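Give me the fold.
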Amino acid sequence: MKKFRILILGKSNVGKSSLVNYLKDNHTALVSNKLHSTRVSIVHDYNYNNTNIELIDTPGASIENTNLLSQAMKSHATKHIIDSDLIILLTQPQKKYNYEMKILDQINECNKKYLLCVNKIDLDTTEKFKNKLLDDLDIDYYLAISVKNSIGIDDLLSRIAKYINSDNSIKKNHINTNNEKITIQELIRESIFNKTNEEVPYESAVCIRKTGIKNNSYVVSADIIVSKNNHKKIIIGKNGDMIKNIGILSREKIEAFINKKVHLSLFVVVRENWKNDTDLLKELGYID
């Protein structure tokens, strides 16, 4: 089967993970309304027209922070450009497109094929931002889509198919797609976002300590890492109610992902300044 690698780039919250989930029809990518939800590039297998497509979901790289975690996220979002066969640059109706201009420059420097897609097009019914986009990026065409309302997806797939059919190279040394541990880690983080809302910053992290099979169940033990004691209290909640609810939701997500019964144990750990802890970031998979 032919292989084809598609890299999805874009700022935080433009819908990269939602697009991956839509195409795969399977919830494997973290989706949240908080900035910089995805922290590590994750490869998702997707079969289309007898082609094994590797969809690479990247972190939003529009990051101003200068800690080690932020630098790692930027690296994850850019290091795959050279090895990709096609890049989907995803954006949305907005006032400025400075970020997209910089990414396009980088794509063009690497002489890579790309599709510019504007997601959430249903929010721009008057085409208020259309001319702004065309002028800022000096382009005359883009794909208008809405993942939420299934608008323009067939057109996007048709364009992808054309690139696949015109690409005759044999792909070697593709990224290892065994992302089960990282995906489980991200699903637990998403559950934290879902349950705590604005109470806990998205700076928390999840570290998978152990996985295995016991009594026909998939056993997962994980640490929820926070930087402050008051964050730990929020995640645990009164009488342990919050951590219980996070665990229930996480287990449901993981069971849907691996299609097995899951026994999940969660522990909350305080690690001050964890975003600059090289060893921990390596363990989390955020840096090599």
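The domain at 180-284 is CATH 3.30.300.20 (GMP Synthetase; Chain A, domain 3).
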